[in-house]
Amino acid sequence: MQKTLIFFGLLASLVLTEQAHGAELKSSPSECWKAWSRCTPGTSWGTGWLWQSCQDRCNCQQAETGKCESVPNTCPEVFEGSTIQQCHCYGTHGLPYNPINGEGVFTVNTFLCGPQARGRVRLSSKDPTSKLIIDPAYLDNDLDVAVLTESCRLCHEIIMKGRGTKDIIVGA
Q1: Contact at 8 Å (CB) between 137 and 117?
Q2: How many CA atoms lie within 13 A of 77 on its CB side?
Q3: Separation of alpha carbons 159 and 161, rounded Å
Q4: CA neighbours within 13 Å on the CB side: how many for 35?
Q5: What is the pLDDT of residues 47-105, one digit of tens each?
Q6: What pairs with residue 38 in β-bridges?
Q7: Which residues fall within 8 angstroms of residue 47, CB to CB, at 6 or more apart?
Q8: Are 28 and 55 in contact (CB under 8 A)?
Q9: Dihedral pair phi/psi, residue 35, rounded to 5°
Q10: CA distance 31 to 20
Q11: Phi/psi zone of residue 110: left (φ > 0), alpha (ψ -120 to 50 degrees), beta?
């Protein structure tokens, strides 16, 4: 069973890599093919994730428009180069796309570049076209939970006590 999973994992990696490179070759400069988007329904966490253009991703999120922007690469262990392309969606139907009365908004994200937890990918049946059972095992490792907890605490401290935000952020 383990050999089957390893082989299937390698095959899936090759297929995704081929699809990604094919998409990058066909895309125009205004499209961002490195954006993942869950626009299709799925029964498990990993099913339904597809490579899409930035505009397709924003349409899926019901945003009016989107563009691919170059941003600093803060995780060189995952992505190569000093910058990466990131899809930004914009619209007028709600935050964060359109701040209220000209006020500013910002988003703080925390994530693990090197999680200790290891998930599992299993076959759901002998049928090779059936959906996979994907268990990412997020937060199964105590160290991962501790690191994320500390990251959230640090973000909160920076927002509430930071020189640029301590007098204008209320609550939380």
Answers
A1: yes
A2: 4
A3: 6
A4: 27
A5: 334 445 666 667 766 676 777 777 777 666 666 677 766 667 766 554 444 556 666 66
A6: 49
A7: 40, 131, 132, 134
A8: no
A9: -95, 130
A10: 13
A11: beta
